[in-house]
Specification:
five-stranded mixed sheet, Nucleotidyltransferase, domain 5, binds zinc ion, binds 5'-O-[(R)-(carboxyoxy)(hydroxy)phosphoryl]adenosine, 19% strand, single chain, 2 domains, 42% helix, alpha/beta
Amino acid sequence: MKILGIETSCDETAAAVVADGERIRSSVVSSQTDIHHPYGGVVPELASRKHLEMIVPVVAEALERSGLEPADIDGVAVTQGPGLVGALLVGFSFAKAWASARKLPWVGVDHLEGHIHSVFLEPDPPPFPFVALLASGGHTSLYHVEGHDRMIHMGGTRDDAAGEAFDKVAKMLGLGYPGGAIIGKTALEGDPDRIRFPRARLPGFDFSFSGLKTAVNRHLRDHPDRWAEEIPDIAAGFQEAVVDVLTEKLLAAASEKSCDRLALVGGVAANARLRESVGRAAAEIGVAVHIPAISLCGDNAAMIAAAGFHRLSAGQRSSLAADVYSRAPIR
Ligand code: KG4
Ligand code: ZN
């Protein structure tokens, strides 16, 4: 079953063709980073406008690269939420129209469920159940994943998401937007132990990153003459604090559920230090960890097609009356 996936929840216009929820035939991601860069964050109206401009060429390119004709597609999956409503509407309306015109089944997919499905696009996907940490720009949550449509929320952030903290700290340091990848790169030159930032250890499986963000801000305020020279150390110290907490909680969640399979997904899963830390901690206790390729960590449509394949296979269909949503129902 060949599914066309479409994703426009934030600042990436993406389309992909995936066979049987696991084999990527094509995956095209058109990033809007350059447009939002001068503003230090995503400007919703600019995002919607750019999605409108890109949706047709991006879908055409995904089809062309897949080597398939529209007539070869068996169904369509599209991100329904959470995300920016104006941005979501572009992909959602397009998918409705594209599928309806061809009398194809189509289904709306939750963006977070999509991220979790990124692990099924890699060889040797995890069997159920497994514990997944989703760390992105909008979410930091732990799930006990019991089936393709059964993701039990174990805990999540009470304030900022991990990716959001990376973006805000990058902005404070004048490193630009989007901040995660830049902090990761800058931290390579720094000493992670020279400046120690606080780790918020909340009870259970909840997270908090706003105190850490404030601590970095305070450090800059307290050292106005010095901080510009120590940016790599600040980036490394901040990154280490986030990585420590994420690694600890993910391993603790696995232990709580007596689960020997872990998954790390979402944009922040592209962070090299986090991949290394989770990989090492899991190996020490003999737990297998599934982390998708970096191209599948950030927003993409292949993960949406993978999640949609399982929904469509289970007989689920969306109706033309369906609408997008901005907040996450599975959080
Ligand atoms: O999953 P994603 O592409 O979009 C959302 O669903 O939010 O995640 C984007 C987030 C951004 O906050 C970005 O700064 C962060 O992922 N990110 C990273 C890295 N690459 C992207 N954070 C830390 N290290 C990275 N290498
Ligand atoms: Zn995402």
